[in-house]
Write a structure and sequence with these properties.
Bound molecules: phosphoenolpyruvate
Strand order of the largest sheet: 1-2-3-4-5-6-7-8
CATH architecture: Alpha-Beta Barrel
Distance between the termini: 14 Å
CATH topology: TIM Barrel
CATH class: Alpha Beta
Largest sheet: 8 strands, parallel, barrel
Helix content: 40-55%
Radius of gyration: 17 Å
Shape: globular
Oligomer: single chain
CATH superfamily: Aldolase class I
Number of strands: 8
Order of helices and strands: EHEHEHEHHEHHHEHEHEH
Number of domains: 1
Length: 250
């Protein structure tokens, strides 16, 4: 059975002192559970705080929210996967909808970032999901399949098998709207089918997370949904008590 994954995307919140205070509360109360792992994606300036505080906890990992696809060079303001790995990151979010929508990240760039993450030894979390207008036009499965294929195109099958995918419908992120378990089940099943078509049966090992306004009230139903292997959580991961309730669910 796959370990459940609970990933916190702190976005542009939690300065180092805030991250340290959060982790003191969280780590005091959260003991290791065999069946789950917790991942934190702090802003880059707070990565070292998460890495240091969780050094002894193999059930907890830290990652970056974005990366440049080159390994190094004259790219002022950017962070490479190799730099993040050197700073203790083990994971990287790639293709988050805020990167795609607000910063114009393309499918092709997402593919380059996935390859860069793997080159540096990071486990990438490829985020895919449709906008509201795409859903209303009946394009959900096509959009998600296109984003998946582009994101995974530059990876060897073994790297695809070690990656993580997050289905995050854009209309559900930060809006308080969540996909119904039936909506999520349909898309998770389609994602699993695309991955199996790419790398065969071992694609079944790739965890597929759901993200989009997950909170302590809806997490149980989402985790009980067929094909949902964990959750990627933004807003509700910023409060230590709520995050504790979420990581104990399921
Ligand atoms: C996210 O940022 O990945 C996310 C799912 O945000 P929220 O939980 O706030 O919708």
């Amino acid at each position: 059975m796959k370990a459940r994954l609970f990933a916190a995307n702190w976005k542009m919140h939690q300065a180092p002192a805030d991250a340290a205070a959060f982790l003191r509360t969280f780590l005091d109360q959260y003991t290791r559970q065999q069946d789950r792992r917790v991942l934190f994606f702090p802003p880059a300036v707070s990565l070292h705080v998460v890495v240091d505080a969780t050094r002894e906890r193999s059930d907890i990992g830290a990652g970056i929210q974005n990366l440049h696809w080159e390994d190094k060079g004259a790219f002022t303001g950017e962070t490479s996967a190799a730099l993040a790995r050197g700073a203790g990151a083990r994971y990287a979010l790639v293709g988050h909808s805020e990167r795609r929508q607000l910063f114009g990240e393309t499918d092709a760039q997402t593919g380059l970032k996935m390859a860069a993450a793997v080159r540096a030894g990071l486990t990438p979390v490829l985020c895919v999901g449709e906008t509201l207008s795409e859903r209303e036009a009946g394009e959900t499965l096509g959009v998600v399949a296109r984003q998946l294929r582009a994101g995974l195109a530059g990876l060897e099958p073994s790297a695809v098998a070690s990656a993580i995918v997050a289905y995050e419908p854009v209309w559900a992120i930060g809006t308080g709207r969540t996909a119904t378990p039936a909506d999520a089940a349909e898309v998770h099943q389609a994602i699993a089918a695309v991955i199996r078509a790419l790398i065969g049966e071992r694609g079944g090992a790739v965890p597929i997370l759901y993200g989009g306004s997950v909170n302590r009230s809806n997490v149980e139903a989402l985790l009980a949904t067929d094909g949902v292997d964990g959750v990627l959580v933004g807003g509700a991961s910023l409060d230590a008590e709520q995050w504790l309730a979420i990581v104990r669910a399921g």
